[in-house]
Amino acid sequence: xxxxxxxxxxxxxxxxxxxxxxxELAQEYGTPLYVYDVALMRExxxxxxxxxxxxxxxxxxxxxxxxFSTIAMLQLVEEEGLSLDVVxxxxxxxxxxxxxxxxxxxxxxxxxxxxxxxxxxDNRIGCIVVDNFYELALLKTICSEKDTKVNILLRxxxxxxxxxxxxxxxxxxxxxxxFDLQNGQAEKALLTALQCPHFEVLGLHCHIGSQIFETxxxxxxxxxxxxxxxxxxxxxxxxxxxxNLGGGFGIRYTKEDEPILPSQYVTEIIKEVKNLTEQYSLDxxxxxxxxxxxxxxxxxxxxxxxGSSKEVPGVRKYLAVDGGMSDNIRPxxxxxxxxxxxxxxxxxxxxxxxxxxxxxxxSGDMLIWDLPLPETGEDDVLAVFCTGAYGYSMSNNYNRLPxxxxxxxxxxxxxxxVKRETYEDLIRLxxxxx
Length: 434
Description:
single chain, alpha/beta, Lyase, Ornithine Decarboxylase, Chain A, domain 1, TIM Barrel, 2 domains, 9-stranded mixed beta sheet, 8-stranded parallel β-barrel, 12 helices, 29% helix
């Protein structure tokens, strides 16, 4: 069994997270339950920041809040001195309510509405990452109406394909995101932006994918972009102050995954950008990155109560839990793989193989296929590892299932940071026919 962060086994033989008994957490807060190891999230944040500090490079590490966004999480991010990446009005609103310093907020998204852009400008956020010509024109109009100026980055697609799942590729030419670097769109966008007195064009942004275990893609993207930066300095007297190379740093979900340390990503990226800028006689830009999954993914565990079972002789045994695709849609959406143990007996010897089924009325609601477990009954609690990213943030009310609660654990203390939804919450916005 692979233990993450502060996870271990206590003297009761139960799975422990942050010094707190997971079985007791399930009893107190109910299941399904998202549990976050705060110490591990702090460690991950410090790891990225310290890597830049040791290399003495100006940088911003912006947490990609789409991975997991709640008021408590964003307050923790602020405590660790990170910046923040938001992609919607809802994420921006959450950040504002969390008291996050707006000057450290970067606003992404391929279809920002007028209302969202106005909210960003009214709250004087640090930077807007402009994604397309429509947004460029809309933002210019709004800034003119408000007689204000805003910092922007231009999101570009450098034509680099990351070795990852097809659904989460974002840096290749055929992408819904950004201005293409190869066909002249990026240069046209730059010239348009430079001509607008309401824009301060800080630099360029790219994002090549997610769950990446090597630095090759980042280095190739940096090379393409810096080469273009040199051409634009010569042709247009533009020199980027900021180069944002996005996120996508991978984590370990199963033994098949082999992630590298945050410091290795940072060190190799910085080395490449330094070499390239020196080669092309450019000033070293400030480097921004956007870790999301790599900060919270392996810090999260979901606890489930075991329920019904079904055995198909000679085929497989199904074991159902009280959650599923409503609290973790990634297995259904991406065929994502996870590891799990019984929280009340994590060290017990496995003597059967089961497939973990969710309770949603969908045949595709399967969390884990062919999981080795000890003999399991209805009193057992299943702990699924590495659900900290895109679990809560992609949770839903399919089959009218209430969303789970979220608990932060640290140094033996547990803190409820998101209440469990109730049935009343489910109908709160419903209106009667008459």
